[in-house]
Specification:
By secondary structure, this protein is α+β, with helices and mostly antiparallel strands. It has six helices and ten strands. The protein is about 30% helix and about 30% strand. It starts with a strand and ends with a helix. It binds adenosine-5'-triphosphate (ATP) and 2-amino-6-hydroxymethyl-7,8-dihydro-3H-pteridin-4-one.
């Protein structure tokens, strides 16, 4: 069994429902166990022009899948949630990214782990630090907490904690 951390994001439709559905599908996979969820955060879109706010969160899982197999399963869940790739960096019902896979560094066609932009993203580090604050990111040699503290204040101010999966529904 290997420990993996997955980032979830949605900025179309019922964002909390898309996230809850993704987690239900993850929990239903025979090769995925012990799914732990962070809070949901409402986050300002980074790198996108005039798009709607995102809901972001991170989950920790233990899996018997190798990272490339796990990625395929995540992409299948994205499709099932109706992800349409209208254009690069377009809005999406659901985006699932592998952030970390044990302490492994992976550089395959179509799969880079640790995720190459995670260290600059408050919408990733804010939820991730709830689950793995002391985890030292391979290749960066710094803990998740340290990376979060080093983010520019403007980055950290772009995310707002909404609460757990259920609470977000009541917002
Ligand atoms: N760690 C990873 N997790 C998920 N996808 C990855 C990863 N590394 C590379 N990819 C590749 O990225 C491709 C583009 O994915 P996508 O369009 O969802 O990018 P994005 O998530 O919107 O952008 P970003 O990668 O900056 O978060 C996928 O087809 C996948 O093969
Ligand atoms: N706030 C926010 N911004 C983003 C996000 C995201 O999930 N949340 N995902 C991106 C590409 O995957 C680019 N920008």
């Amino acid at each position: 069994m290997k420990e993996a951390y997955i980032a979830l994001g949605s900025n179309i439709g019922d964002k909390a429902a898309h996230l809850r559905a993704a987690i239900a599908r993850l929990r239903a996979l025979p090769s995925v166990h012990d799914v732990k969820t962070s809070s949901i955060y409402e986050t300002v879109p980074v790198g996108y022009l005039d798009q709607d706010l995102f809901y972001n969160m991170v989950v920790a899982v233990r899996t018997t899948d190798e990272a490339d197999v796990l990625l395929g399963r995540l992409q299948e869940i994205e499709q099932l949630e109706g992800r349409e790739r209208l254009f690069k960096n377009g809005p999406r019902t659901l985006d699932l990214d592998i952030l970390l896979y044990e302490e492994e560094r992976i550089d395959l066609e179509g799969l880079t782990v640790p995720h190459p932009r995670m260290q600059e993203r408050a919408f990733v580090l804010a939820p991730l630090r709830e689950l793995a604050a002391t985890f030292v990111v391979p290749g960066l040699g710094q803990s998740v907490e340290r990376l979060y503290q080093q983010l520019p204040e403007t980055e950290r101010n772009g995310v707002r904690r909404l609460g757990g999966l259920l609470e977000a529904e009541e917002q």
